[in-house]
Every structure is written in C-alpha cells, then in structure tokens.
C-alpha cells in the first residue's frame, strides 16, 4: 500500500459528508443562478432552460444517493445520522421544486409575470445563504456565520410569503379564470422552494444547537 493510500485510510471518515454536502450546495447555487437568469429572458418555445434544470435535478439526486450510500457504509458521522438524512432530503427537495416550477411554466404555457423573476431572485439568495451556512458548519467553528445565514433564509421565506399573497391579489384582479389557474399553480411551486429552503435552515440550526 502506497503512503498516499495509508494516509487516506486513516483520515476521519466523517469528512466525506461535508464534502458531499458542499457539492450539493454548489449544485443548488448553480441551478438557482441559471434559473434566475433564465426567468429574466424566458422563451416558452425554447426548452433549453427546462433541460438544464432537469440536468441539475438529476445531479442532485445522484449526490443525495451518494450521501445515503455513505451513511450506510460509515459508522462515524459528523452529526446524527437522522440529521444527515433530513438535511440531504431537504436539500434535494429544493432542487426538485425548482425543476417542478420550471416544468409547469412550460407545461401550462404560463404567461410571464414579474413575480416569477422576483421569486427566482429570492430562491437564488436562499441557496447562497444555505451554501454559506454549510461551509461554516464544517468543524463547528463558525457558528455565528451559520446562525446569520439561517436567519437570512428565514427572512427570505417571509418575503416570499408576502410576495405570494400580493401576487395572488394582482392575479385575481385579471378576472381570467384559466390564467389564474395556470399562474397560481406556478406561484405556489415557487413559494414552496423557499419553504424547503427554510426547512433546511431549520435543520442546520437544530444541528448547530446540538453540537456547537
């Protein structure tokens, strides 16, 4: 066995989880950035954006599966196994609902609304804060930054709640029943993304309380 392999054999096995979570958050940040940019210049006749979101969603599925495989292989984990599972599932939900939002915009041929771009920007900001929280959670050394990032995610979710309410009011004033059904469905999917981001922030805060 080479010296590199010997060194690797004695490395803490729990480090793999932080590596994988960092890959997941990197994927979510890239996905949400592409989503935000794509919404700004949206074309219902061009499904390039939908395909990109599908690719990101599949990559997230693969990383989530990898986390679960490592969870089954490793006895030593950086925090509770249940928390690892909850965190991985929550992060995967964010990717699932970003993709679902994109898919239903295309399926419904949903007309463009300013609220879509407002939501997409909030989603991107939430993913950036989650990435920041996960980076600082490593080693449990920068808990102030973790807490601040989680608070920002919670604030973003509150803004998204208000955005949904105000957008629905404007939507119903159009008196276009078919349009209301289409757009309201998309708006709800977009708002759920921020709900899932808040769920992840809450999971991170629970981990921080237990182990910091």
Automatic annotation (TrEMBL):
InterPro entries linked: PhoU-like_sf (IPR038078), Put_Phosphate_transp_reg (IPR018445), UPF0111_domain (IPR052912)
One Pfam entry name: PhoU_div
Highest taxon above the source species: Bacteria
Family label: Belongs to the UPF0111 family.
Protein name (Swiss-Prot/TrEMBL): Phosphate transport regulator
Species this protein is from: Chryseobacterium lathyri
């Amino acid at each position: 066995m080479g010296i590199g392999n010997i060194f690797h054999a004695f490395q803490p096995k729990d480090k793999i989880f932080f590596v994988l979570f960092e890959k997941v958050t990197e994927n979510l940040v890239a996905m949400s950035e592409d989503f935000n940019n794509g919404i700004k210049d949206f074309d219902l006749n061009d499904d390039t954006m939908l395909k990109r979101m599908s690719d990101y969603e599949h990559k997230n599925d693969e990383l989530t599966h990898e986390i679960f495989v490592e969870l089954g292989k490793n006895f030593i984990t950086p925090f509770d196994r249940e928390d690892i599972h909850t965190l991985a599932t929550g992060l995967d939900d964010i990717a699932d609902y970003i993709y679902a939002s994109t898919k239903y915009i295309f399926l419904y041929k949903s007309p463009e609304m300013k609220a879509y771009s407002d939501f997409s920007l909030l989603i991107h900001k939430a993913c950036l804060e989650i990435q920041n929280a996960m980076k600082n959670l490593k080693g449990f050394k920068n808990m102030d930054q973790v807490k601040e990032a989680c608070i920002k995610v919670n604030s973003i979710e509150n803004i998204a709640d208000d955005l949904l309410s105000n957008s629905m009011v404007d939507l119903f004033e159009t008196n276009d029943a078919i349009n209301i059904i289409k757009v309201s469905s998309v708006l709800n999917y977009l708002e759920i993304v921020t709900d899932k981001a808040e769920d992840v922030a809450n999971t991170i805060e629970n981990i921080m309380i237990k182990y910091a």
